[in-house]
Amino acid sequence: MSEGQPHAPDPRVLRREDLGADDARRFRTGADCLDLTHTGAEGRYAVFELLHAPEDVGRWLGLLVRTPVAARDEDVAEVRGVRNAIGRVARAIAAGDAPAAADVARVNAAAAGAPMVEELVRPGVAHRPPTTAGRALASLAREAVELFGGPLADGRIRVCGAEDCGLLFVDRSRPGRRRWCSMERCGNRAKTRGYRARGGARGD
Description:
about 40% helix, globular, single chain, mainly alpha, two-stranded parallel sheet, two-stranded antiparallel ribbon, about 10% strand
C-alpha cells in the first residue's frame, strides 16, 4: 500500500472483555483519553509501546472508541505524539504541577480537529460508523480537554499508588478515596504486602 493511503479497518476490533487481566487494567482508567496513554509512552514506559504500525493504531483506537478505525502511515507518529502529550498533562495534574504549555497546545490542536460522528438509524437509535484515526484522535483529545478542564482535575486524576505500577486513572467514586488502577491487581498486592508486614505471614 502506498504512503498516505488509509489502511482498511481491522475487522477484529479488540474488545475490552477479551483482554487478559494485565492488559485490561491498562484500559480501565475511567476515561478513554487516559486509556489512550496506556498504549505506550516515552522513557521507561517505552517498553509497553503498542502502536508500531497503522494496523496497531487502528486496532487499539478501535478498542477505545468502540468502532473500527482506518489508519494511515502518518497517523502512527501523530497519535503517539498526542497520546504522549495527554499523558504528560495528566501526570502533571496528578502531581499538582502546571502542565507544559507545549503539551497543552498539542492537546488543544488535536481537539480542534473534526471528531467522530454518529448516524441516525431510526428514531431513538444512532449508530457510530467506522471512522478514521484522525477523527478518533480528535474525539479522545476533546474528552481530555473536558477532563483536564473540569472538576475532576481537582484531585481526582491520579497515578496508581503501587510502587511497581504507575498507571493513570480518574477517581469517579463518590468518596474519592480510590488509590489503585486495579483493586484486583495492585490493590490486592498492596493488601497482601501490608498483611505480611504486620506479621500475618507468621500466623500472628
